[in-house]
Structures are given as C-alpha cells and as structure tokens.
Amino acid sequence: MSGHGGSSPPNWESPQGGTPGWDPSGQGGQPGPGYGYGPPGVPPRTVSNGTITAALVCNSIAIVLCLNIAAVAGVITALHAQRRITTDPRSAWKLTIWSWSLFALSVVIGIAVVVFFLTIGADS
Length: 124
Known about the structure:
The protein is mostly helical. 56% of the residues lie in helices and 0% in strands.
C-alpha cells in the first residue's frame, strides 16, 4: 500500500489476515450487513418549529401591512404545517416552503402596489 504502482511492500500482511486484495472464499468481496453506504436516496428534511413560527409571524406582518391575500394563504399553510410537524414531517416541510413562497409573493405584490401608487401620485 505504498500508493505507487498498486502493489504492497514485500512481507506485508493485511491486518485482517491473508494477502491484501485476495478473497480466498471466492465470494466476490461483497460486504456483509452493516457495511457500505446505505440505501439510495436522501432522507427527508425535517423542519423545526422555529422555521414554521417565523413563517407565520412574517406572513401575519404582511397581512397587517399590505392586506394581501397571498399572506393570508401563507398564514393558513404555516398553521397547517404546525399541526403536522409531529405526525407528518415531510408534509410540514412542504407546507413551510409554500408558506415562505407565499410570503415572498406577498412582498413582491406589496412592492408593486407601492410603486404603482407612487407613479400615479407623481403624474398628478
């Protein structure tokens, strides 16, 4: 295991016993249970209660400031996410993403309304 040429030094034995790189059983070198990288796929992301609460608070502030229907939908999705955090974490994660997306949409709509009224006020 010198890292050069792929061969081991002379008189070197593997810590597991036998010659390195040789499988005397002829099984093909398949690892036993508990070895390897695990099943394919990525584990589902979990969402914290703080993320849901922050989405709920931000959407509530957007309702107060903009009276925006997208923020109302964001509050509703955040409330549903809070109810599902223990029973269905994957659904709670998706609902939290939706809640933040609706908050972003309400901010964009609020900015567009402000710009619209500023341009109307500047024209008159």
